[in-house]
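Hey team,

Sharing the Hydroxyproline O-arabinosyltransferase-like domain-containing protein run so nobody has to redo it. Sequence (364 residues) first:
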Amino acid sequence: MFIRKNNMGRASTPLLILIALGFFFGTYNLVTLVIHHTSDSLKLGDNGSEWFHDAIRSMTEKKNLKYHVALTATDAPYSKWQCRIMYYWYKKVKDLPGSDMGGFTRVLHSGSSDNLMEEIPTFVVDPLPDGLDRGYVVLNRPWAFVQWLERATIEEEYILMAEPDHIFVNPLPNLARGEHPAGFPFFYIKPAENEKVMRKFYPMEKGPITNIDPIGNSPVIISKHVLEKIAPTWMNISLRMKDDLETDKAFGWVLEMYAYAVASALHNVRHILRKDLMLQPPWDGEVGKKFIIHYTYGCDYNMKGELTYGKIGEWRFDKRSYLRDPPPRNLPLPPPGVPQSVVRLVKMVNEASANIPGWDKLNS
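Structure output:
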């Protein structure tokens, strides 16, 4: 009996070694597969897959994956009504399954409080000195983030940089992966086609122009400490671009977006490109599983449901129609045949305006 036990003890040693080796190679293969898939996602800009999402979550389950929603805003009526709608839908989806939303802050870069302070969590920062933005108000955005990151207490490890004309249409998970932010690829941000101008700010020795992602700063989900590195560079590049006549003419209203893309590349930050992060009516017809409606484009249709973009339609919804006052409650729905995304947008605006107290009286 004693001999049998001794033999069993000797036999268990190689067995344990085999088990340990099997566990090592299994873990190595999983990590290698995840790294390979991450590389493909960064390079190809695909949406990833559910198994990859679950694998990463299981590896980081002890970390705080919550992100803080931050949108920069002015105190103009045009900005206020959009912020109110945005915050309404944030509260509606925040705690739904699949959401990683944490806190919310409207970063108000007017320098003083306004009449939304009690309705929406707000942090007041200073605008750029008079005349420095040259009438290009979004130049205040990077400076606002620099101040907010320095002065505010932000509990979450990640931040979603958002804008007032965003509406959460589905619960949004944290799509960032560690040091790699998640961003939306814009078709009109084309670093390679503007290489001559871009090289003024991203010199040859930094690497190929393809290191610059086709993104803006919003929507982007990014770790707080990475954004703390990028934000001052983003601010300085924005100001330099605005001061350069050739660059200002080339980039126009998207100059600050290019500045963020360049600043990220200068810090060797590459974004996971997620086309499902956002949809933009009227060009994107279906909502599906996308997460944010961005209503920056005018939606103009005739009563046959045909798009008349560039020409005021018989039916229209355009945020620029409401520069001084919010849209009235109960906007008429579009005619039959109009894409689902436009119908959904108007219904969501109507629901928010119907349920936000004092909708019509705030500006007065």
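The CA atoms of residues 75 and 298 lie 23 Å apart.

Ping me if you want the raw files.
A.
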